[in-house]
Design a protein that fits this description.
With 184 residues, the protein is mainly α. Among the domains are: 2-36; 75-109, no CATH class. Helices cover 54% and strands 0% of the residues. The model has no long low-confidence stretch (mean pLDDT 88). It binds heme C (HEC) (5 copies). The site of one heme C has 14 residues, from α10 and α12.
Length: 184
């Protein structure tokens, strides 16, 4: 039975079938990759582009990035400090959910875009201190409307940059590629 199946696979029709299966698997994988890089539905369609164009710094809204592991997201009080004084806030449909959240005191449940699993230790501060910019890992957020993740943040991605950053420095290379540096 199995031998007959393999014989059949070698026939032209079998080869076409193999091709179709391969293409199907490849498109599923490609689609999976594509969806992880799309922006998710957010409770508010927060436009980064508009805010950065007004000259608001990344660290004003994500101050944790230079201080510790997590960059953090701004509270609605921080949004409201500005929006309370902006005329458009009263009329914009895009801002209605912000007004509702402030009035009801409910926090806004943002959907994570850039995330690594819990068993990975990532620390923003170390990277900012080493001179890395937000764009190096998050892409050009100043041109994005709803935040999207331009890269797959997997182990190979981390290691690539670590090997590159270490250069000729063997001691650094050992430290930055040691399992215990990122998993403990
Ligand atoms: C430093 C001031 C400032 C802060 C802080 C701020 N915004 Fe804004 N926001 C603005 C300005 C200015 C505009 C543009 C208003 C205009 O077009 O008239 C804007 C526009 C917007 C718009 C688009 C509105 C529309 O109808 O086009 C949304 C949505 C928005 N902000 C949400 C937020 C949220 C959510 C937060 C908090 C995470 C926030 N903003 C924090 C100043 C701010
Ligand atoms: C006015 C406040 C504000 C400014 C300025 C701002 N952000 Fe954000 N950022 C937000 C809010 C609110 C969210 C959550 C909504 C979302 O993910 O779209 C967010 C989400 C993000 C995310 C995705 C986080 C996640 O949950 O995975 C990244 C990455 C990011 N911002 C980077 C930046 C960078 C880089 C800059 C500067 C170029 C910047 N932000 C400027 C408010 C701001
Ligand atoms: C070396 C790569 C790298 C750099 C540089 C970097 N980030 Fe991140 N960022 C990440 C990774 C990885 C995550 C996911 C972390 C997690 O899930 O614990 C993340 C998550 C985030 C988040 C959402 C979760 C959180 O940490 O609160 C925000 C917001 C963010 N980054 C903003 C910024 C800003 C703003 C800058 C520049 C000041 C910056 N990042 C620089 C890699 C980076
Ligand atoms: C764009 C380049 C880049 C990427 C991407 C990157 N790193 Fe790093 N990482 C660095 C540099 C540079 C250092 C600091 C090296 C030094 O000590 O000078 C560093 C240091 C670290 C350290 C040591 C921190 C400390 O306290 O000394 C950890 C842990 C780390 N990275 C985890 C990660 C993880 C996890 C990822 C992927 C999710 C990642 N990094 C992605 C460049 C990068
Ligand atoms: C620079 C940071 C970094 C270093 C060093 C590192 N890892 Fe990882 N590791 C990650 C990240 C990020 C993930 C997240 C899983 C993914 O999406 O690839 C991960 C995932 C894993 C997983 C789970 C794989 C999966 O498919 O879920 C295992 C197992 C693992 N690492 C083992 C190791 C071992 C063993 C070493 C040492 C040889 C090591 N890691 C070194 C960052 C690192």
């Amino acid at each position: 039975m199995i031998k007959r199946f393999f014989d059949w696979l070698k026939q032209p029709l079998g080869l076409i079938a193999v091709g179709i299966v391969f293409l199907a698997l490849f498109s599923i994988a490609a689609y999976g990759l594509y969806t992880t890089q799309q922006s998710p539905e957010q409770p508010i369609q927060f436009p980064h582009k508009t805010h950065v164009a007004f000259g608001i710094q990344c660290l004003y809204c994500h101050p944790g990035a230079s201080k510790g592991p997590s960059a953090g997201l701004p509270s609605q009080a921080k949004c409201w400090a500005c929006h309370n004084q902006i005329q458009k806030t009263q009329t914009s449909a895009l801002l209605a959910p912000l007004k509702d959240a402030v009035l009801s005191g409910q926090s806004i449940e943002w959907v994570p875009v850039a995330i690594v699993p819990d068993f990975v230790q990532f620390n923003h501060r170390a990277h900012i201190a080493a001179g890395k910019n937000c764009e190096d890992c998050h892409g050009d957020v100043s041109q994005m409307n709803i935040a999207e993740n331009p890269q797959v943040m997997n182990m190979g991605w981390c290691l690539n940059c670590h090997v590159e950053s270490a250069g000729e420095d063997q001691e650094k290379l050992v430290k930055l590629t040691d399992c215990g540096t990122c998993h403990y």
